[in-house]
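[step 3/7] fold_predict: job queued, chain A
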Amino acid sequence: MMKKILSQSKSITPIDNWININKVLKLYKITTMGLLLTTILLTSLIFNLINEDPTVVLINKEDKNFYGGRKRKIKLEEKDLKTFIEDYVHARYSWENINPSILVRNLSPISTNGFLKKLRAELKKEKEGSFKQTITNLEIVLTEKESFAKFDKIFKINNIPLIVPTEISLKVIQGERSKWNPMGLYVDGIVEHNGR
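[step 4/7] structure written:
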């Protein structure tokens, strides 16, 4: 039996080997072309999904409303900047029972990292306690170079109010938009003046 197997292996000629190699190469060529077409198809599918216009779903208690949207760059206007500054001032200067770590965490999506480091250092001086601070009479002034906010801080200790007129100058920069900061505006610095 062993002689039979050896005699069969000797009967394979170089031409047969060449034909077998060509068959394997043809199989590799077909497989590679199939994988290439699959890759092109999947890449175009992913590209179309990424660039597809979003569908916005507004869910109320009773019904759902579907709206088709468009992706486009939106230029921010003065009222958008005023709204951003108003929200920032309320987040920074209105609190009950000050907790510096929570305050910094709430401001982190709309502040740069450098500013947050300075704010942490400033807030370390503050002690946690049963204090309450609110703001009133907020007025926002925008110029071509600077942004100002004027307001009255009402600081309450044991329900005794202390009113401090305050003016701040904000350095607002535009950066990357995110889920938590859709306008892409960030506070990079504040100069605060108490008493006008």
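[step 5/7] annotate
The chain has two domains: 2-55+63-68, 78-194.
Strands lie at 55-59, 64-68, 95-96, 131-142, 147-157, 160-174, 185-194.
exit 0
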